[in-house]
Write a structure and sequence with these properties.
The chain is built from six helices and 16 strands. With 301 residues, the protein is of the alpha+beta class. An eight-stranded mixed beta sheet has the order 2-3-4-1-5-8-7-6, covered by helices on one side. The chain has an eight-stranded mixed beta sheet with strand order 10-11-12-9-13-16-15-14, covered by helices on one side. Strand 15 and strand 16 form a beta hairpin.
Amino acid sequence: MKTTSILLKTRALAAVLAFGWITVAPVPANAAPLPPLTAADGNPRLPGKFVWADLVTDDVPAAAKFYSKLFGWTFNDYGGYLIARNDDRPIGGVFYRQRPKDKVAEPRWFGYISVPNVEKAKKAVTANGGRVLAEPKKMPDRGEQAVFADAEGAVFGVVKSSKGDPEDFAADPGDWIWIQLFSNDSRKAVDFYRAVGGYTMIRNTETNRLNDYVLISEGYARAVVGTIKPESRNKVQPTWLPFVRVKSVTESVAQAQQLGGKVRLAPKPELFNGKVAVVADPTGASIGLLEWDDEIIKGGR
């Protein structure tokens, strides 16, 4: 998604999202060696791009069944860490963590940002008020990765891929197409991620905007950052929400419900012409659905 017409392409939404885990372990200790992020050889690295996503959940089989039916993903087991594939392209992982008993918590998706140096990213995180949840770890075929929480507690990862990053291409149905950060203070959040991910940014000045900033790298829009409304802060915690492209939002929402999921935000005509929604899988993890077409570029709100 090029920076031209970004502000029309990246109007996002506010959804009711449950608070997730405070700490995570990105790969179980007994996991088999993980494959590279891309099967292609010699791909360039694309710093700032979200190149991977993980789901932490307390019911891996239920989650895998849901996503295989909803998106057509297939899964391979690497010693308790499942890798999801769309048309044989690896796009994300699923791993188990027991649900805490002393607090309200739900499973969650979180994304990984491509960085040229994981240790430098770690230093930037801690220098700007964030926390280390999983220390940098090197894996022979995979590369090096770590998991952090930003200054508001939103979980994200970074990775330096061993074979380069998945190239920029138009998302097919079942692929990740977008990601949004919900923040209590979007300006501070932007400063944090600029320090960690090396982004430039564009400010959204439209009157009826639902996001405040667009994060840019390599000439592409990588994510948007929106401010949680004060009246919603008892329901919405700072978090990242990834979106998957679907052929039909209406049909996908109905199917998600049939598969045991819940609707967090139903399609509305005023939001992207009714072509965006948020659902939760049967374990409680929220995920966005986006039906992409040219009408969105022309001003869907």
